[in-house]
Known about the structure:
The complex is a heterodimer.
Chain A: H1 3-20, E1 24-28, E2 33-36, H2 38-43, H3 50-53, H4 58-63, H5 74-80, E3 84-91, E4 97-108, E5 114-123, H6 125-140, E6 145-149, E7 154-157, H7 159-165, H8 169-172, H9 190-195, H10 200-207, E8 211-213, E9 221-227, E10 235-245, E11 251-260, H11 262-284, E12 289-292, E13 298-301, H12 303-309, H13 313-316, H14 330-337, E14 347-353, E15 359-368, E16 375-381, H15 382-432, H16 437-467, E17 475-479, H17 480-490, H18 492-497, E18 501-505, E19 511-515, H19 516-532, E20 539-546, E21 550-557, H20 579-585, H21 591-601, E22 606-611, E23 615-623
Helix pairs in contact in A: 15-16, 16-21, 17-19, 19-21
Chain B: E1 4-9, H1 13-24, E2 30-36, H2 39-49, E3 53-56, H3 65-75, E4 81-85, H4 90-99, E5 103-106, H5 111-122
Parallel strand pairs in B: 1-2, 1-3, 3-4, 4-5
Helix pairs in contact in B: 2-3
Amino acid sequence: MSEIDKDKERDYFLRILDIIEETVFVIDRDLRILDLSKGCLNKIRNGVEREVAIGKRCYEGLWGLEEICEGCPVHSVFEKGEAARTERFFSLPDGTNRYFDVEWIPVFDEHGEVTRVIGDIRDITKRKEAEEKLAEIVDGSSIPTFVINNEHKITHWNTAVESLTGLKREEVVGTDRQWMAFYAEKRPVMADLIVDKASASKFKDWYGDKYKMSSLIEGAYEGLNFFPPLGEEGKWLLFTAAPLKDSEGMVIGALETLQDITERKEAEEELKNAEEQCRTIFEHVLTPLCLIEEDDTISTVNKEFETLSGYSREEAVGKKWTEFVAPEDLGKVMKCYHNEKKEELPCCGFKFVGREGDITDVKVSIEPIPRRKIRVASLMDLTKLKREEELCAICEELKELDNMKKNFLNAAYHELRSPLTPIVGYASLLKRGELTDIQRKYVCDIEKYAEQLKGQINRMLELARINGGKIAMTLEDVSISAIANEVVKSFNPLLNDKEQTITTHVPEGIEVRGDKQKIIAIFTNLISNAIKYTHEGGGIDVMVEDRGEDIRVCVSDTGIGIPEEHLPKIFERFFMVNTSLTRKSESLGLGLSIVKEYVKLHGGRIWATSEHGKGSKFFFTLSKKGEISGRG
Amino acid sequence: MRKKRILIVEDAPYMREMMVEMLNHAKDRYEVVGFATNGKEGVDKYKELKPDLVTMDLVMEEMDGIQAIKKIKQEDPNALILVVTAMDTPENRNMAMDAGADGYLWKPFTINNLLDVLDEMLGKD
């Protein structure tokens, strides 16, 4: 290429540079300016002619300095052949302060030597000022805020975010450890995703449904989540991350702000609980309730209201309350509704009209709900109340009857026993005199049946007393084997008469804390029943089992048995399986019910099994500790 | 040996009659010196007759047996009182014991029951 051609090409090249207003210059190894674009002259050395600058060293020609700028990489660009970048602050001759970014690009000759370097200057004053402003805003903000650059390194970490996360600025600025503040494991925070220009699916991967695009800031995202590592019990954070862009719209970093909404969340939770509580009370209270809106329509009713009105919830809602009031009572209820008498709790009675036109006498109280334009009406079904009052009266009457019965039993006892006294007494006197054999038999019969009558009367009284809760327990340590053997022995004459055999399986040494006389009565009663209801020649067995906490006793016989349908009733007072038995066994049917009460007094249970015609088994338990089971 | 003097406090005439009949079988030891038909009369008769033993019914009009026992014991702590009643409940037993009764005989009773308890109570001196 000829020199003329070269000059032509250079002119052409310079014209292009001038047109695009780029700020470019070329220097040789001596740092002398070979060429420079008009942009350089206009933006930096305003007014200086190109010819004046060319040939001067770059620091002098461009910046008007006498020495090479400190830290300038240009020499190393010539040596190593690698491009470099510097940022520098410069006060222009017109007094303005500017930041420049200079990129140094080596130009190689055919031998691979760097003969020239192109300098590409960019004015970054605006960006620098924006960065400083940002730093000022971030650091001065009371909102926890941090900034990362496009290499995910933290550039700003303000005091508020320090106190929220507990991480100090010195620990994190310049690192990509922003995750440490919020998570137990390394993962991107929202600002990282913004810098990466992450897709919606990436956001979803990391935040699930706990994020959304910001409606206020373009390209920003908001999230709400609970962060267990924060504070002592974790914190709820509302966080927003927005991209930071340079003047050309390139993302150069991201800013994230955080808001601790734990208290708000807790308050919300409490409110929710309180609401739930109110709803539950409203629904389950045994009072018909409804809420009345300002326009007189009913907006909510509870289950009791449904029952009272006969309308389902869906049907009742939307109706005017006045529809439920009989026309003649409307004026009265209206006065109450508007609380014309200024009562503390306005209430009045009226005729409530149900779904089928049915009338119920009710009482209503209407109470405005504070700060809301609705009222709550609570109704009371007076007929139901009346019924309850009647029931109470019946209950009282029954109690009185019960008392009368007890008094009657007590009196009956005295009045029945007193006349027995001369019968028994004179019979004993008669026996002292001279009597024929038949007279003696008569007297003995009188004594025998008087004795029987006395037994029946005693049992009657005993039950009356148990029923009245009047039984006193004399507690002592009772040997069960001693009692069982003693009772069995007392029946020996009777057993011999009926040619029955009795076997016992009673371990020695079992003691129960209880009332000895009552335990004897239990054994006596059950064994005497077994003998009574077992045919001649039959067998009876008494078995005692030590079960640790309690003992279990089984009295079994080979007697007539009890029909299955009667088993649940045999411990009831006056119950007898059939009348023919009654006559034969000469009983009032009080025995087993007394036994049951005695067993209960010893913290035990009694039951029976039986096969009709083959025999019965009576079981009972006695607590060893002398625990008295509760009586009404 | 001196016959023991007995006061019978009992509202039922047939009971008084029968007790006299029974005691007639032990004429050598016992002598009925008087009767009272209620507690108040019993107390008065006790003061008047100073018997060796009082048989005391519990259920009586005017003044019941428990009150009468207390009054008599107040008058004479050494008085011997035998309760004779049909109400043999633990409560009555306790009440009579607290009032100061010395013995109990439950109705109905035979002649042997009566004489046994009297012999036991009065044979001691």
